[in-house]
Amino acid sequence: MLTVIGEGLVDVVQRSSGIEAHVGGSPLNVAVGLARLDHPVQFIGRFGRDAYGESVAAHLKSSSVMVPQGPDALPTSVATALIDDDGAATYMFDLAWELPGLADRLPFMLQGTTLVHTGSIATMLEPGAAEVLAAVEHAHPSATISFDPNCRPSIITDVDYARRQAEKFVTLADIVKASDEDLEWLYPGVDVLESARRWLSLGGPEGPALVVVTRGAAGPWGITAAGEAEFPAPKVEVADTVGAGDSFMAALISGLVDRGLDGAQNRKELRELPAESLRELLAHAAWAAAVTVSRPGANPPTRAELNHLELESLERDAESAVEREAALAGDDRRNADSASN
After folding, report:
1. pLDDT digits over 101-115, tens only?
2. 232 DSSP 8-state letter
């Protein structure tokens, strides 16, 4: 069982062509992404007894995400996304974030959980952030922890506070993913890859085993104790970038779970992940993000869709390799003919 803790909300997307509403929230999107990749997953968050809350519950149910706690009396959180002509999203938020009584229910809720993921608003906005940190501390002795800060400067404006919060979770996490924009905001004037390398060292032998940086069109980069790797971003026509990082995060987690690296008992093996395996994970996650940016809203791929795309990519790479070998062979023959003449 995989567990995702964090905010669920409704994205109200405003484009030049009109307004649409989609269920979202970074952790919720990760939960849906994991379920679509055929992992049993539960979502611990909150939503209200209102029309938006009903849409959140229906979305989770339709994606086979388990929800161990129902709606509460607070309004469902709303994020308004303004989409520019290039497909990039800018957000404004109306939020209610708290999980009262979570600590008392955790031993039951987390039974059988091998991995806990959290991040974004849930780890920054009080009073819920303290409850999420306590949940991660509770889960750490038995479960892999993954974290994505997914910073929202329009909500958490104090960068010093945000940096302290992020580093608390990084220290507890085994797997960390951040965007280059996250790291540029948290550590202004510092090269983003250097910031990621520093995060790898936080917590010493109990800190992160893997830190990944997404860099938009430049493609993802990652680091483990065994080395560094990167993968070029797949070229697709972009509808918008909503949920792309969350699809990447879900597929990154999925790839590690598929390798049997979830669970605290596998921390040593996770820390020894070689650079070539890291590159394969980055490729897997990058293709998942590519699917999401190719269609509107936070709409992550199914396992069948992702497998199909990856197979097509491998076939194209094989065809290109054959063409390159044929071209080189032709050059060799021409050079030999020239030499004989």
Report:
1. 888 999 999 999 999
2. P
Q: Which residue has the tokens 């062979």?
A: 329
pLDDT recorded at residue 16: 77
12 touches 79 (CB < 8 A): yes
Q: In what order do the strands lie in the sheet with 144-148?
A: 41-44, 2-5, 115-119, 144-148, 175-179, 210-214, 221-224, 227-230
- pTM tops 0.85, yes or no: yes
Residue ranges of the alpha helices (H) in 80-226? 102-109, 128-139, 159-172, 180-186, 192-201
Amino acid identity, residue 167?
E
Cis peptide before 127 (omega within 30 of 0): yes
pLDDT at 117 over 60: yes
Q: How is residue 150 annotated by DSSP? A: -
The rounded Cα 297 to chain-centroid distance in angstroms is 15
Strands 77-83 and 89-94: antiparallel
Per residue in 190-233, pLDDT (tens digit) is 999 999 999 999 988 889 999 999 999 999 999 999 999 999 99
Burial group, residue 336, by CB count within 10 angstroms (0-12, 13-18, 19+) = exposed
Contact in structure between 83 and 14 (CB atoms under 8 Å): yes
Cα angle: 138, vertex 48, 122; to 5 degrees: 35
Q: Which of 95, 90, 72, 119 is nearest to 14 (CA)?
A: 90
Instruction: Find the helix or strand (DSSP H, E) in which 22 lies.
Output: strand 18-24
The dihedral sign for the CA sequence 77, 99, 73, 29: positive
Name the residue type at position 117: H
∠ CA 211-142-33, nearest 5°, is 55
Calculate the alpha carbon distances from 211 to 149, 164, 250, 322 in Å.
12, 17, 15, 35
Q: How many CB atoms lie within 10 A of CB 237?
A: 8
pLDDT above 70 for 149: yes
